[in-house]
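Researcher: I'm preparing a figure for a lab meeting and need a structural model of a single chain. I don't have an experimental structure, so a prediction will have to do for now. The sequence is pasted below. Please return the structure as tokens so I can convert it later.
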Amino acid sequence: MLTKRIIPCLDIKDGRTVKGVNFIGLRDAGDPVELARRYTNEGADELVFLDITATKEKRRTLVKLVKEIAREISIPFTVGGGIKAVDEIEEILKAGADKVSLNSSIVRDPDLLTRASDAFGSQAIVAAVDAKRIGDSWEIFVKGGSEPTGIDALEWMVETERLGAGEILLTSMDRDGTKSGFDLELLKQTNELVTIPVIASGGAGTIQHCCDAVLDGKADAVLAASIFHFKEIEINELKKQMAQEGIPVRIIYPTMAD
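Model: Understood. Here is the structure written out token by token.
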């Protein structure tokens, strides 16, 4: 089993980190630059920054804030929200991101995935998928989870891999912010169909939830927000517990300051 990653997520609105439940009821969770710095020091493997209102507000991602965060961290950094063209991807990468996350824009223009992958390499392109259970299947939603598309989520994820995505960030809208555990069925079915890494998102509430996402859902990484923002779970403690369950993780042992 390859090393599994723990990824804090900064959902950004009006320049602040926020968190809600099922994509609504947002509350303030702190300064994103300070949180980014803390997560680097606490042993996070990567950091995700999602400008969650950029698409609905029809504006570009907050590049200045991306630059500020990039200067403070030493771990891989993924940025998403409102990115809809190859030149915008280039701007975000030059601002300090290692990867870009694309969602609404690739549903509207699937070939953007291929153009982006050709230009920057598939390792820099993440297909973000917001999926909601409708009956016995899952449907893709866009524009920050506010607009249904009628597109089957599993079929779409297979297509994103074919088009050039190097990774999938899969969020269960039903579980988002509920702390009730990840949608293991959605994760398992996805990982049976695609070969690229899948990041589990939506539902983290306990250490066991994160272990289950990897052991049962076959996720390659676990993304969470509020449990880290509000210090309900420490990243290194989570990793130590995962290691005890046989999950390979990178544990950082902090050194004492002089």
